[in-house]
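Design request, tokens follow.
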């Protein structure tokens, strides 16, 4: 199918807007429009998204909204919600929204009953009715990787003030050190191990599950549970059916936190808070379904991403939560975004016409300020920043929270407005520095500014707001995938490495002969020499 004219026109209009705005400094955009913040700041209840420090204006945003319309974002969203097989390469529906009441599940799939069942199990663990050989469960170890790890691990850390159940631990890496270090101080008679794997075949997870079973020893049978779509695999591993919790192939791994993959989290925070977490996501689902494109928060975030990536040509995004408990959020969004939209062909298999998913990375502020922010302020590349912060602290010193937020806002200011050579000169003159010294130091102390950021702000980080925040990013990824016309719901790019690793294992373990390239054969040989 050829790209329809309307879509080409919309892209051309967006690019023309970018050329109009490219030479205009953010300082000038603010100076020219006293109502800029009001015009470019969007809200859903307490959730507030400030786009005014992005290098765009109302006219550019209108062109972007037109692009979303021309790309058929609304039709694809409706197809997603209706359970059509939008994951074309795997011929599957994409219905993670149905896990939280944001869409209808396919007929016959008992989402509500499964939720009740795994939350019932979580509560039984919390009450001590499901216990270890040595007493009530004190620790839960979730074994999983990718979407079967990052979601619950991130959310458990984010909601640590809400945890009133057993301690939660997460083991993902096939490096045996991960499990060894995690269980070093745990009591195998009071630890519940949950094996979380959609396929129940993932090499890392199955290797760690076997190691954990050995560590549990005689307690393995009563103290292991599993979450998977592969019920036969769980049974073959020896996990009794009453401790196996299923989900469905229409839940992608990186979208599975809302399913029983969230079991560890539910044991930590309890059923009521887990339901509040789902409700937060459902509120965002309702918003994305109902709000007009021009006021639809995930649509706007997605369009800003398109603007940065395709109109202005910036290949990376720094995601900086000013919240220590969101320290795993950048890693979570990395998988969500890069596994979804790191694609090079369109939904019908042709090379894409534009750049697709950006590189997402980040660390919490203020730590990041003392590591890589120097480059963001004065390096040669423009790196757009997404700031995320809560207005109110939870179980944390309020004065520290003021320091935290002051730093968050200051970074956005410094990036956008910088410090001109004239300002630096005036400041140094007032401080009594000599003209020679001023001339020597001004270039080093000047900040160009004109570097964009979006600030995402909300009341406080609780189960509801975390669910809503995650769903905001999920839908943003959807919007961008729709505009790029890629399938955001497969991940063939991770398969080749898995297959190649499989072929290398016998060579490393049993001295089996190895075919293939000289570098890899050379490295295998060197590993063997070093092992002795
Ligand atoms: O990394 C590829 C991937 O398939 C992810 O999409 C997924 O979240 C992860 O592996 C784990 O898969 P599973 O839950 O089947 O063990």
């Amino acid at each position: 199918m050829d790209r329809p004219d309307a879509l080409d026109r919309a892209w051309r209009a967006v690019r023309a807007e970018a050329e109009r705005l490219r030479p205009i400094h953010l300082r000038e955009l603010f100076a020219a429009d006293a109502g800029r913040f009001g015009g470019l700041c969007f809200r859903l209840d307490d959730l507030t998204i400030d786009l005014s420090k992005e290098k765009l204006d109302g006219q550019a945003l209108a062109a972007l909204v037109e692009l979303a319309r021309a790309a058929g974002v609304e039709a694809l969203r409706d197809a997603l919600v209706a359970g059509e097989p939008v994951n074309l390469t795997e011929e599957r529906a994409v219905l993670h929204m149905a896990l939280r009441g944001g869409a209808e599940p396919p007929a016959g799939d008992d989402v509500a009953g499964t939720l009740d069942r795994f939350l019932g199990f979580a509560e039984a663990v919390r009450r001590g009715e499901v216990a270890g050989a040595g007493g009530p469960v004190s620790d839960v170890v979730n074994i999983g990787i990718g979407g079967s790890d990052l979601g619950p691990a991130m959310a458990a850390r984010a909601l640590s003030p809400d945890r009133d159940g057993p301690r939660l631990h997460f083991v993902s890496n096939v490096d045996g050190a991960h499990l060894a270090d995690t269980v070093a101080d745990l009591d195998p008679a009071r630890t519940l191990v949950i094996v979380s794997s959609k396929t129940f075949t993932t090499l890392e997870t199955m290797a760690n599950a076997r190691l954990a079973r050995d560590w549990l020893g005689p307690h393995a049978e009563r103290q292991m549970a599993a979450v998977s779509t592969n019920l036969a695999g769980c049974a073959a591993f020896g996990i009794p059916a009453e401790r196996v919790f299923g989900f469905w192939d229409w839940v992608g791994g990186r979208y599975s936190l809302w399913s029983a993959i969230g079991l560890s989290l539910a044991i930590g925070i309890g059923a009521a808070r887990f339901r509040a977490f789902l409700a937060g996501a459902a509120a965002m689902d309702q918003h994305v379904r109902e709000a007009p494109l021009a006021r639809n928060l995930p649509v706007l975030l997605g369009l800003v991403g398109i603007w940065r990536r395709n109109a202005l040509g910036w290949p990376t995004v720094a995601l900086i939560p000013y919240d220590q408990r969101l320290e795993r959020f950048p890693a979570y969004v990395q998988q969500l975004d890069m596994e979804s939209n790191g694609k090079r062909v369109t939904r019908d298999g042709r090379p894409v016409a534009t750049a697709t998913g950006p590189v997402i990375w980040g660390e919490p502020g203020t730590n990041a300020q003392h590591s890589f922010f120097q480059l963001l302020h004065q390096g040669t590349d423009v790196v757009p920043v997404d700031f995320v912060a809560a207005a109110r602290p939870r179980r944390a010193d309020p004065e520290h929270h003021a320091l935290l937020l002051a730093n968050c806002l200051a970074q956005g200011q410094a990036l956008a407005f910088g410090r001109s050579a004239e300002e630096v000169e005036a400041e140094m003159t007032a401080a009594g520095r000599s003209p020679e010294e001023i001339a020597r130091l001004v270039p080093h102390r000047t900040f160009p500014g004109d570097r964009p950021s979006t600030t995402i702000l909300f009341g406080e980080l609780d189960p509801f707001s975390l669910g809503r925040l995650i769903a905001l990013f999920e839908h943003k990824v959807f919007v961008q995938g729709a505009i790029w016309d890629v399938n955001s719901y497969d991940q063939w790019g991770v398969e080749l490495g898995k297959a190649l690793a499989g072929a290398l294992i016998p060579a490393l373990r049993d001295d089996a002969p190895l075919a293939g390239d000289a570098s890899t054969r050379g490295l295998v040989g060197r590993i063997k020499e070093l092992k002795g």
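Comment from the thread starter after seeing the answer: thanks! The two ends are 59 Å apart (CA to CA).
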